[in-house]
Structures are given as C-alpha cells and as structure tokens.
Amino acid sequence: MKLKDVGEFGLIEKISRGCLIRRGNVIKAIGDDAAAFMTDPGMVTLVTTDLLVERVHFLRNTTTGFNLGYKSLAVNLSDIAAMGGVAREAFVSIAIPDDCPIAFVEEIYDGIKTLAGRVDVNVLGGDTTGSKTDLIINVAVIGEVLKDGMLCRDGAKTGDIIACTGFLGDSRAGLHLIVNGIPADSDSLRYLLNAHILPEPHLKQGRFFSSRPGVHACIDVSDGLSCDLGHIARESKAGARLFAEKMPISRQLRSFCEEFDFDPVDYALSGGEDYTLICTLSSDGADEITGDFMKAFDCPLYLVGEITDSGEMTINGPGGEMRTIAPTGWDHFKI
Amino acid sequence: MKLKDVGEFGLIEKISRGCLIRRGNVIKAIGDDAAAFMTDPGMVTLVTTDLLVERVHFLRNTTTGFNLGYKSLAVNLSDIAAMGGVAREAFVSIAIPDDCPIAFVEEIYDGIKTLAGRVDVNVLGGDTTGSKTDLIINVAVIGEVLKDGMLCRDGAKTGDIIACTGFLGDSRAGLHLIVNGIPADSDSLRYLLNAHILPEPHLKQGRFFSSRPGVHACIDVSDGLSCDLGHIARESKAGARLFAEKMPISRQLRSFCEEFDFDPVDYALSGGEDYTLICTLSSDGADEITGDFMKAFDCPLYLVGEITDSGEMTINGPGGEMRTIAPTGWDHFKI
Questions:
Q1: Opening angle at CA A208, ends A206 and A212, nearest 5
Q2: Looking at residue A316, what DSSP letter applies?
Q3: For residues A151 and A235, is the Cβ–Cβ distance under 8 A?
Q4: C-alpha distances in angstroms, A52 versus A73, A137, A247?
Q5: Predicted ipTM beyond 0.85
Q6: Most A CBs within 10 Å: which of B3, B16, B32, B122, as the mutation test of the A interface?
Q7: Which terminus of chain B is more solvent-facing, meaning fewer CB atoms within 10 Å of its CB: N or C?
Q8: Which chain B residue has the Cα nearest residue A2?
Q9: How far is A124 from chain B (nearest CA, A)?
C-alpha cells in the first residue's frame, strides 16, 4: 500500500497508535497544534534533535524500517544520556517519498516505539510530509535533569581521569561490513553489525554519572573518541592524554581487525556511532566511582587517559612513544 | 563559498552567532549534547515541529534564503499561537546539499533569527548535516502556557461563534503568482505575495484568546479554513455553519480573483497557509471579546459562522442557499 492511498491523516492515525507510553505528565499528545505536558518543578529541560537523510546517513535498501526507526531515536536518547538526563518525550518528523511503501513507514515507527517503550519515552508529536527523492527523519527528544546533576562538556579539570562506558570502534566495523557488502556470517561479525545498527543508548550510565559529584564532564561517542573527546578538551580549555593499551576494544573488533588488516586502536580513536559515554572523573574519586559502576552495571568503566593542561590531545603507544592526535571524525560536509 | 570549505563545525560557529535572544531561563545554548533551560513553575510546556522539504514545500530558485528561514520558523510559531502560548525556544535542523552555497544557508538563519528576535525566541540548538539532493529544514519550537489558558481543538460547543483573526485566501493567491511565474508588479499583488512568503504568526492574538474564558477552541489556518475548522468540528464532535458573505476577504484578493477569474469564497475556504487563527467563542461573550479584540489589535475579529450539532460543515451562500463543504486542503501525499 502506498501513502497516496491512505493520505496524510490516515497515516497519522496508523502511526500514532501506541505512541503514548506514560500518561502521567501529558496533557495533549498527538492531535492538536502542539503537544502539551508538565515538567516537574525545579527540573532543567533538555532538548536534542537529529536529522537523518537517506543516502547520507543510511541506504534504504540496506536497512529495515525497524532498525532505521530504532536508531533515529537511539542517537537522540544518547545525547540526553550524555547530559545525565531522563528522556521523556520524543517528536518524529518524517518526509516520505512516493516510492516508499507504507509498511516501511510503519516499521520505522515500530522501531521507534519499541525503543521508546523500553526507556519509558512518549512519542508525543511530529510531522508527516512528502519528499521527492529521499526519506528524511528528524527526531527531537526532550528530557530532564536536576540542575546540579547536569553533565556538560566544559567541566573537565586538569588531572581528571578519562573514562568510557563501553567498547569503541565496534560500530565502525559494522559499518564497514555494510558498505562493503560483507556478510555477517559469524557471531562475531553479527555482534559488530548490531553495534552499528542497534546501538544501546547509555541512559542508565548517564543517570549514574549525574548522581556523582566526582564526574566533571560527559559526552557521547557519536563522531568518534578523538573528535568527541576533542569537544570536551576544547570546551574545558584543556588537553587530553590517552593510552593506546587502555582502549576498550572488544575481542570481536580485534579479530575483525586481524582479518581485514586494520589497526584496532585507530578504530577505537576515530570510529563513530558507538554511543558509549566518555566522562572525566575527579582523580581522587575515580576508584570509588569505578567500583560502584562495576557493581551497578556488571561491566567495567574503562579508564583510558587523563585530562592535561597541554591544550592538545596525545596518545601514548604501548612502548611509551607519544603522538599527537588531531580530532578526526565524521564531518557531514566533507565526505 | 561551499560547505565543504568551512566544514560542519565551521558552519555551526557561523550560524550560532546571535541565536541567544533571551538569556533568562537558558542554562546551555548551542554547543553541548543538548540544550538546557528552565520552565517557569506551573506552566504547561508546548512543543510543535514542522519539516520543510525542497520541491515539496518550496523551490530553491523561487525563494530567498531569508524568506525560507523566516517562514520555517513562522509556521511553528503559529502552532504555539493556536494553543494560546508564549513561544520560547526554537531548534533548527538543516540538511544541506553540496550545490547550496553557504551564503544561502546563512540567509536562512538570518530569516530565522530576524523573526526570532522580533518575538523574543531563542534558537537554542538543532542539527546540521548534508543532503544528496534536496535542502531540508526541520524547526521545532517550545513554548509555554498556563494550564487554564491552553486553547485546544476539542473545546468547541454547539452555539459557539466561529471567529477569525485576519484575511483568508491571500496566501494561496500569492502561491498562485509564484507557481505560475506571474510578476507581482503592483502593490496589490505584492501584498498577496508577501502574505504567502512572510506570514505573520498571530502570537499576540493567541495570547489574547488564552486570557479569555469565553474562547473555547482554537486552531491556526495552515491547511485551509475548511480543513482546519474540520479539525475543530471533528475533535469537538460538532458541526459548523459558515456564511459566505462573512468570509474575511481582502480587497487585494477580490481584485486578484476578478482579474484571474477565481471565486474568492473558494480561496477563503480552501486556501492554506494564511496562519490566521480560527477560534470559537461562547455566544454570550462574543460581543465583548470582539470589542476588546478591536481595541487591542486595531483590527476586527471576523465572525464567520457558528458551531452546530449537525456533525457536518455547511456554508450558506449570499441568497441563503446552503451547501455542504468537505474538508479540503493540503495533503502532502496527494499532490
């Protein structure tokens, strides 16, 4: 069935089912000129938004609608996680070309609603419209955080420990498989593929950091460690020193890099879209936070380097040799 | 200069200048993972979003960047106006094709910032990315309103007077000029063109209605009177009767319709994008509200019909003859 057959309002009726996950604070969901909801007193409102464009961010013939919808919400949730916030309401704008079947659009919303349901987020509104060529999805997410618990990029201090909540580089390896048409025919390759297509936003980890005064700065890894840590360094007017042997590299990425002759440290440094969090920890509280993190998540908090006053980013190799790293990563206009 | 030359972060630096209009409640503007701001206690948060796609909503060679930016914000402000709200923060996502000069993108932001400045709205964030073919703009606006003053589509009551805050059909006439390449070579045609390209969101009128308990329902005219009034009727489980001779038709639209042989009442009924407000007024308070509206805005509040219990929409012609009107208007999948 095509969109022309159901029309804009028919589509809205189809996709708006199951969008209201949590009624508590909602006054108007989909269906009026604007959505309306209450914010808890004293909370800071957080807003983030991300625009995904066919042929730039995804290829329609290499993704399912479900995975596309899931990821378009996940990347925004990750931004709320990086601020230490609770995600509350999502808004989905979608522009649909004529040749896109309505089933694909419904799958997109299934992906969005599945993830939204898992993290207790409402889909409260958005926009549906046509497009001549490319499928376009813009998701905006509103969250909230206590003012004192908000995590920003500019809070890093010289001597802070740089920590990471999960593996780096896996997503880039998954992208390599997709772009080069390499079948994910082993558990190991399927793991890497999934890291790219169904990333897990680290919302609980962000909440954990938000409750710890020893966490000074935080960002999520969307453009790659060197790029995103570069934002923390620049905003905090600081530098950073990383240690190659401390990079959190999964065994799956190691075997992928062996097989395809890549450098896993390079993947960890400049691979984007991992959606783990990087934070900086007060050096005297790092041990306690690391221990509590392990207890809470049954997963280590990887300590990968330290904040310096040098104004540049460097990485120390296994033999102690040091090189400067330029903030590399994804630039949407330079590819 | 092209986007490739300045890069994504260079562009963000350029366009984020002058985006912070009102510092009061803002904790983080452009530059972190999410924007952060405080909401006044007891206020309802309103959110609306609109996606504009090249070749569906605009043609790049028939618009200036300024006008495109202005309108992409205006249509969202109009939604906040229709809820009776104060607009507060805007978020702009933009996907830019390679062949779009950076000057055009800066013009878009000039248009946005000019209107934002006029209505005291911050541009607090968004997203910038690439696009293969079409220029894409998604704007989301956050506003607030007192819970008791919120205006919804579902509040109309049988016997209510239907009122409109300005002329209808002018914008469609302006669109006719653009689409048919007719030069706007008189004051009258320029007026119609401007009604289409630089619509004025009726925020103050919405605030006025919000403060009046006698105003029961409200919507803005984006898809056309018959379509938008149809939303009020459907949501309120009511019908509506309009009067052809009471349609607010500008003298410029009358002379345009004479010249090009169109029916001005048809233009008023089904022309979209006027961004006036339609509201329904308690019949016993209508006189006072109309008088106060005239005093406040030096412009009449046009009383165009009444809410009925018929479940359908009709229009009475000048001789008293009645016809049923189907909710027509813009469907983005059916053109």
A1: 110
A2: E
A3: no
A4: 10, 5, 29
A5: yes
A6: B32
A7: C
A8: B333
A9: 9
